[in-house]
Amino acid sequence: MRTCYRLNFLSIVFGLICAATTSYAQNSLLASGQWLKIGITQSGMYQITPAWLSSLGIKASQIGVYGHEIGELPQSNAAQRPTDLQAIPFLKQGDKILFYGEKFPHHYCDTTFYFIRLDDPSPKPITELSASSMTNTPALDYGYSHFHYEPESYNLLQSGREWLGDGFFGQVNRTIQYPLSDYKTGIPSLLSGKLASSSFSPGTFTFNIPGNTIAPLTFPATTGGRYDQKAFVQSFSASVYPEIKDQNWIWNLAYTNTTGSGYIDYIDLQYPRKFNATNENPHYILPNKTDSTFSISIQNKQSNHGVWVKIPGKSWQNASSLTFNKIAPGAELLIFDTTKGADPLTGEIIPNQNIRADSTSELLIITSPSILPAAQLLASYKSAKGIMAKAYSTKEIYHEFSAGKTDITAIRDFIRAKKPRYVLILGDATVDYKGINKVATATERQNYVPSYESRESLQPLQTYVSDDYFGLLADNQGEWLEGNEAMNEPISVGIGRIPARSLEEANTVVNKLISYDTKMIFRPFRFAWLADDGDANIHVQDAEDFAQLLPAAFQVNKTYIDQFPQELTNGFYTSAAGKKASLELFNQGAELIHFLGHGSESAWTDEKVITNNEIQNLKNSQHLPILLTATCQFGRFDDPNQLSGAELSLLSNQGGAIGLISTTRPVFQSSNYLFGQAFYRQLAKHLNDENYKLGDLFKDAKNDSQSGVINRNITLLGDPTLALPWNHTPLTIQLDTLHAGIIQGQTNPSIDGEIRLFYYGEDRAVQTLGTKTDKFSYTLPGNLAGISSANVVKGKFTLANNLPAASLKWMARSATQTYAGGILWPIKSSTETKETSPPSLTAQLLNESDLLACSPNPLLQINISDESSLRLVGPKGEKAVLTINDTLEIPLADVFTPTLGNSKQGTITFPFESLLPGLYKIRANCFDVHTNQGICSFEFRVSSAAKEQSALRMYPNPITDRTSFSFLQEKRWTSYYYKLKIYSNLGKQILEKTGMVPGSDSVNQIFSIDWSTAEKNQLDFVNYYQLEIHYDNGVPFRSFSGRIGNIK
Question: Which segments of 402-533 does DSSP mark as H helices, in order?
Answer without folding.
Answer: 408-418, 442-446, 503-517
